[in-house]
Design goal:
- With about 325 residues, the protein is an alpha+beta fold.
- The protein has one domain.
- Helices cover about 30% and strands about 10% of the residues.
- The protein is built from seven helices and seven strands.
- It has a five-stranded mixed sheet with strand order 5-1-2-6-7. A two-stranded antiparallel ribbon has the order 3-4.
- β6 and β7 form a beta hairpin.
- The longest helix has about 50 residues.
- The termini are far apart.
């Protein structure tokens, strides 16, 4: 019948069903839409990841800066007590302790200092209970250890470090006493005990403490520097920056060679002087504690003459802080 309610209900029900299906189809993702969303998320992650890495490096760099501040403060306290700075070699030999062993009680390591026998070498079994310890103050969080330290015979049980004294713009000739040469002279903030101008003190900073580097960074980042003896002969040594070792290139560094060199394994460009160069794993430069205790980041692009001027304590140079 034309006016039957049953006949009117059927078209309405169909229309309602069609409307519901249309709404449901609009609420679902198509495969293309899903792929677009995944692509957008991937792009956002790609943009965000460098920012996260930069934030992490900024935090690591700040922690490294704090280490340098604490080391600088310890050296100042040492000078306050003894009226001079510690020398690179704590007991007047190149096999004894370093300035970092001398300042142990000033960085809350008095117990380790009491255990250390300054009459023995830093690699002596008696001293290895101290020199084999990894001390956080002496390690930069941005600098990975690219091998186990200690590992091979050449390490002699000593733990790594990432900081060294600035001995100036000239290298130290450790063979002077055997070759008959005159005693060496160094123009840096901290020198070796047997140089004609050591030990130093604030009185020697004629250029000003704020314009003289005192402590800088080193790193295990020289893959072409290799072991030449022992069980690891031929393997990459990367560096020998042991915090307890006063030997040149370990805790005594000069600006005579390349600044912050980048060594790539087997590229044929390795220079043996790089072992005695300041270097770091921070992007673009190296951090230093200056004589006044301030910490500055010197970029790779720093002028060589400015760098040498900052390395000397009495060169008479006039340097603007805008240049570093």
């Amino acid at each position: 019948m034309a006016g039957s309610p049953t006949r009117a209900f059927v078209p309405n029900a169909i229309r309602h069903l069609e409307s519901s299906l249309a709404v449901r189809s609009r609420l679902a993702f198509t495969l293309v839409e899903l792929l677009v969303v995944i692509a957008i998320i991937g792009v956002m992650i790609g943009l965000l990841l460098p920012a996260v890495q930069a934030a992490r490096e900024a935090a690591r760099r700040m922690s490294c800066q704090n280490n340098l501040k604490q080391i600088g403060l310890a050296i100042h306290n040492y000078e306050s007590s003894f009226k001079r700075f510690p020398t690179v070699n704590a007991n007047n030999t190149l096999s004894g302790g370093s300035l970092f062993t001398a300042i142990l009680p000033l960085i809350e390591k008095a117990s380790e200092f009491e255990l250390y026998d300054f009459a023995l070498s830093n690699s002596d079994p008696v001293n290895q209970q101290v020199t084999g310890q990894q001390i956080p103050f002496f390690l930069c969080p941005s600098s990975p250890l690219r091998r186990a330290v200690p590992s091979c015979d050449g390490d002699n049980g000593r733990a790594p470090g990432n900081y060294a004294a600035s001995i100036g713009s000239r290298d130290y000739d450790q063979y002077w006493s055997f070759s008959g040469r005159p005693r060496p002279s160094l123009n840096g903030a901290i020198v070796y005990s047997d140089t004609v101008d050591g030990p130093t003190g604030f009185r020697d900073f004629l250029d000003g403490t704020s314009q003289t580097m005192m402590i800088g960074e080193t790193a295990y980042n020289l893959p072409d520097y290799r072991f030449t003896s022992g069980n690891c002969t031929g393997q990459s040594r990367f560096s020998f920056t042991y915090w307890s070792n006063p030997f040149p290139g370990s805790t005594g560094i000069t600006t005579e060679y390349a600044f912050n060199p980048r060594d790539f394994a087997n590229d044929g460009l390795f220079d043996s002087g790089w072992v005695r160069s300041f270097r770091s794993d921070h992007p673009g430069g190296v951090q230093f504690t200056f004589g006044d205790g301030g910490v500055h980041f010197l970029t790779d692009s720093i002028d060589v003459m400015v760098l040498d001027a900052l390395a000397t304590r009495n060169g008479g140079e006039v340097i603007s802080h805008d240049t570093f």
